[in-house]
Amino acid sequence: xxxHLNLEEIFAxxxxxxxxxxxxxxxEFPAEKxxxxxxxxxxxxxxxxxxxxxxxxxxAPRYPATVECIPFLARLCAAGVFVGELLELLHSxxxxxxxxxxxxxxxxxxxxxxxxxxxxxxxxxxxxxxxxTIGIIALCGRSREAxxxxxxxxxxxxxxxxxxxMLNACRHADPEIAAELSVAAIAPQEAPELRLAATLxxxxxxxxxxxxxAAAATAxxxxxxxxxxxxxxxDTSTGDWKETDRDDKFVELLGLLAxxxxxxxxxxxxxxxxxxxxxxxxxxxxxxxxxxxxxxxEYRGAPVLLAPLLVPLVADEDAAVAEQVLAVLHRIxxxxxxxxxxxxxxxxxxxxxxxxxxxxxxxxxxxLGDPRAVPLLARDLPRRRNALEVAIGRSWRGGGSTAPFDxxxxxxxxxxxxxxxxxxxxxxxxxCSLLASWGAEAAPALPELYSLLDKNPQHAPAAIAAVAAGxxxxxxxxxxxxxxxxxxxxxxxxxAADALHKLTGDAAPLVAALGQGLAGVLYELRYAMPRAxxxxxxxxxxxxxxxxxxxxxxxxxxxxxxxxxxxxMYAIAGDAVADELLPVLSTALDxxxxxxxxxVRRIGIxxxxxxxxxxxxxxxxxxxxxxxxxxxxxxxxxxxxxxxDPIGSDGxxxxxxxxxxxxxxxxxxxxxxxxxxxxRQLGGGTFEPAAVDALRRILANEHRPPPIxxxxxxxxxxxxxxxxxxxxxxx
Length: 731
Fold this sequence. Notes:
Blueprint: H1 7-10, H2 30-37, H3 42-56, H4 66-78, H5 83-95, H6 104-113, H7 115-118, H8 127-139, H9 144-154, H10 160-173, H11 175-185, H12 192-204, H13 211-218, E1 233-235, E2 240-242, H14 249-259, H15 263-274, H16 281-298, H17 302-310, H18 319-332, H19 340-347, H20 355-367, H21 373-379, H22 385-391, H23 407-418, H24 427-438, H25 446-450, H26 460-468, H27 474-487, H28 490-504, H29 508-517, H30 522-534, H31 543-549, H32 559-573, H33 578-590, H34 594-603, H35 611-614, H36 621-634, H37 655-668, H38 672-682, H39 689-700, H40 714-730
Antiparallel strand pairs: 1-2
Helix pairs in contact: 2-3, 2-4, 3-5, 4-5, 4-6, 5-6, 5-8, 8-10, 9-10, 10-11, 10-12, 11-12, 12-13, 12-14, 14-15, 14-16, 15-16, 15-17, 16-17, 16-18, 18-20, 19-20, 20-21, 20-22, 21-23, 22-24, 24-26, 26-27, 26-28, 27-28, 28-29, 28-30, 29-30, 30-32, 31-32, 32-33, 32-34, 33-34, 34-36, 36-37, ...
InterPro entries: ARM-type_fold (IPR016024)
Protein name: PBS lyase HEAT domain protein repeat-containing protein
Organism: Dactylosporangium cerinum
């Protein structure tokens, strides 16, 4: 098992490596540090291993010498030197522990190249060493040699957990061999998790779904044994903490079944697991719920099929289960309305025993538009922070208050504003948003809003202006806002002057405040620039400073900041400043700025010379919509006529290619309504037949588009997309 390598063989070529800068906080170079690991002085050698851990897994800038070190570390491991420590180190490097590396593919490839040296460790008498070796195989991708090594070890491995891990690793190394091993591994006498892994391998190999496979897939849940919770982890795709395995094979199996059109079978598996009572039921339910959550996120038909399974679990005794159910209901939106009565029962908590859960339940009820939610919010307002955030639109709905005016809720809001000891730190700004959404109906709360001016000058002014507008209290409100604008700091003054402008229409105080803000620090500039543009022609006194900001080059100043200044200039002066903006826009387009493309769209024909620079932006979903809109704005066409082919002053893209880009945005990107409007514009005011056919195909697709980055509102965004496409086709 131990490779017989002497030190000369282990370190062959070590001195030939041109070591890059390594970032160690130690004086030794990598070559010396590697030799130290092979030292006869065990304490010194172990310290060197620790140094490599510190360097190769640092959260600081990546360690450029890692790839060069891997062959020597693998040889040391194969020769029996610090086997466990080095196996764990190589696993952590291939896994990308602690940080996303921009060289991760190279790191995995480097570890994979050393697999032949490491595979004998599958027979290591130390269980942990076998486990690390199996983990390395799982990370290294396809390898027939590794799969054959697993096959050779398969019947000799006594530990059922390791056999499960071996099968999972084999599935990555060679799915064909994994499927061969799985035929016998689904047998009832095998360990439940191994049977699950075997089922997964067989489904991947397109095996026919049978009752035997269904039984093997759920065997882990049937004994009812008490199961320890897995390590808690944060799921960035949903924004929730999960208490199941990060790489849960049951969840993966449900997804595979749904992916091959067997969504009903996947739902039946989840239902079977949820139905098992007894010890360990909390873990089993959380595991099934994770699968349900993923299915709802991936498939448009899943919520209707799976939402009924959630209803009995809303009030589950395990708070983690109940919380997870509410999170799923929050994400799926209207299709969760059949659970409204159960959610109401949790939200209607009077004893305060689990305020956090009741708060989340009330937020879900508000999201569902249930009329019973607002009275509960009014009754328990001081204890319902999450629900208050939902009430002002900070939910999957994407903006706009979800709480209609209610006299009892108005009274509760006023009472909470009068009693700061009963509210949390975020309550004032949320209450300001709520009251502002009601307008004049919230006028009785003006005294409480006035009391916030000193301590909340960034939130109270806008609420006061919205509530006082058109009422007998407008004059007093204007006087108070004027007093605040005169006395506040340069930053807070802008909020007061902005509110005063909305209330009275007087632009002079806002022009003065924004002029001061445009001369301020970065966060003041970023607040002032867009508001300068909102003034229109009244903002002309601000043009000289905005012009200076086009060339501003201070720390933290970005292309988007420069575009904000340019956009405000154009909003104030229009085509009179178009020519001087073109060089700035050209530079920004070279940096792939979507903001620059949007501004080109607004400017239109005077910016026609920039058309060639827009074409590269069509290749990314982040910039494609802005670029497409800009190109259409630059195209010359009469009303009711299809746009010419090719489009752009230099023919940068064909008519059909631009239509394909816009359809791709509808299918995968955001701002679907804008993309659809551009498609209609491309056809001269109507959809072309090919576009209609493509939109129908998108609408019929059962799969939701993949998430774009950290997209917590994936389901809601897709629901909006489907609604927008359906409405467009119905016109």
